[in-house]
Design goal:
The chain contains seven helices and six strands. It is an alpha/beta fold and 210 residues long. Strands 2-1-3-4-5-6 form a six-stranded parallel beta sheet, with helices on both faces. Helix 2 crosses helix 3.
Amino acid sequence: MSARPTASAGVHAILVHGMGRTPVSMLLLAKRLRAAGMTPHLFAYSAAFERWLPCVERLRKFITARAGDQRFIVVGHSLGCVLTRAVLPSLARAPELGVFLAPPTMASSYAIKLSRWRVFRLLTGEMGQLLARQEFMDTLPIPDIPLRVYAGIKGPRGSWMPFGDEPNDGILSVKEVQLGEIPVQLLPTIHTVIMNSRQVASDIVATVSS
């Protein structure tokens, strides 16, 4: 007797990795979503070698080609969330859900500090510089779709640490992840591996299936 299809079956999931990472970083999440019947698609880009606007346009074409006229969601990590916010207004069809994992929503204090270093500028290109500019971050619209926003809180804390006693994921404080009035789900993890949280995958499947 064949298994009954789940409510998430046939839903396409566009996964957009963070700066300095590759699609490999999203493979575990992709595997978990695939096990729930979803079809993951991994978007690849290089912050060091790509310009901002061409990358946003390439993401638009990627989403259009993979999702077609079928149900789809978008999952971003870090800079991938910024790319997602930029591309959403240009899509012919909006995703039914956006999942933002550790999204920088204001000029990142880390990016501001590191942007002064030539090595950082070389490794992160135009996109890394944009993350350090509040005027750029202010141009990004808050998506008009259902959103789930997650922040890690296992970064080091203490009066001598970069974020002091603020909860953080080692790269961003929770305050830097807050997007308008959207509730932030706190996870006991750090920035670079937040996408591997089982809760993230479970929440996505539950939300899509509801």
